[in-house]
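Quick one from the shared queue. A colleague (R.T.) flagged NADPH--hemoprotein reductase as missing a structural entry in our internal table.

Convert sequence to structure tokens.
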Amino acid sequence: MKVRRRQGRTLNLGIPGGGVSAREGLGRVSASEMKVDGHAGDEADTTFRKTLKAVSVLVGRNQETCESLVSDFSSLAPRSGLGVAQVKEMDSAVDSLSTEMPTLIITPPYEGRPTDNAKKFVAWVEGMAAQGKKLPEGVEFAVFGAVNSDWAHTFHRIPKLSQSLCVTISGESSAIGKIGREERAGVDVVIENANSVKVTSQQGPGGEPILLATVVAHRELAAASSFGASKRHIDLRLPLGTTYRSGGCVVVRGENSAAIVSHVMKRFNLGPEDVMKVPSSTKTFLPSQPMAITEFLKRNVELATPITKKQLSILASWADRDRKESYRLGLMQEDYIYQQLLDRRYSLLDVLEDVPRLKVPFGVYINLLVPLAPRTYSISSSPMDPHSLEGSGVVGPAVSLTFDLLESPAMSGHGTFQGVASSYLASRSTGDRVFCQVCRANRASAKTTGNVELGPALLFFGCRNPADDYLYREEFEAWEKDGIVEVIACFSRPADGRKGEYVQSRLWEARDRVWSSLQEGARVYICGSAARLGMSSTETFRKICREKTGKTEVETLEWLEKIKDIQYISDVY
């Protein structure tokens, strides 16, 4: 490891292998004066990599949800004798699964459906299996499923389907290798004073083009209260030539708050003028060129994700066995205590604040972090709205986002939790710029062009009470007056003493009308929490189907799966 530090700064904090205390007149340590725990050189590293067994990685993802998994695998694979030769989207492997190297398939389900870039692949293997066709001899694969249990009925479907179908068509399921997270040594970090180096900025990976949008309106829809967080509305003017569709989304690249960045800097005894670089790492979010540490912490890595047991184990390896830090970190790995940490959303930094005497190098800390993931927001405007249209060929269309401002006392008890993207958006004023990506609609039902004549529309809108969080009430009432939509407001905590109502109960009351509309081709759109509104609405529609048709539990589930993305479209989170 090569280390360079500012004058007078102790070496035992922030750098793996440091152990010399600061003393009067200590000069900067040069690259030639210290090498700890590194490879012998570039030539040795090249020779080492030539001995690795090549692996191909196929990724199915929506808005980079599996980005950190790919990064982790690429980083850890060499320790098991593997080297990632290529990373491709799943659809690119149709008719071309490698016979020269094993293939790792990393895929999540998207509400039980293939992700945007895996639809062709899943259809291909389904077709091969149905026709009794076989894959070429020599195809080896393993499937890693990244799932969301909020989609209770479907969260394992696509990973399991990919695995079983590939086995059916005679690909050989391969134990590619046990990949561990033994990261005690950390990464080689060079820290210098900003005045002595040229600082460069970095741009993260992306799928859709990164756009620079302009804030044209920003207002609070509902203030924070005992009922929930502050609700905000923001309009972003996109560049000329950009298009979007209803049902699409905007991916926002947020920032960690100044407060949490300051906590990290203080914990590792770093100054605001310090810059860093990681000369050799397979992790793309670690800067290979000098970058201000504050900027790295703000833009490149997640600082508040829940702690993992492996991270706790690595922290414990830095504690002296006869010290109380070792005992405390050992307790935290016990199932009961660890579950309490998860319930309180303890992060790596929270744990470090609970064991302030633990001397963990900065290089170890950043090597345990994952890249900052972009946050996805459903578009809450229509490109057909006159306010969204391009302005006389001079400016692009405007897109609206509606979001909660996540800002509250941290459940861990350490400071204030601030949402990465929501706090970033809430801090933007008219005229400010926002880096974002516009993703196309994921559903055929969202493809509308030109003026269309709409049929009867029925909106079930759930909130607490009219005074606190009846969002867009004026717009809804105006549309209802014009005969555009009928609104059924469901107040769970009305202030006038009435019994609370929920969307699912009002939906059940209107089941005759709802079922009749479905038979006439009506489309259902669900937007809200997957664990609450999404799940309760799904169960209510299945209940309606059972009553109207006499179908069994299994048959109603099959019915719902059949009409998904055609008549039943959900956008849940």
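The longest strand covers residues 211-222.
The chain has a mean pLDDT of 79.
Added to the table.
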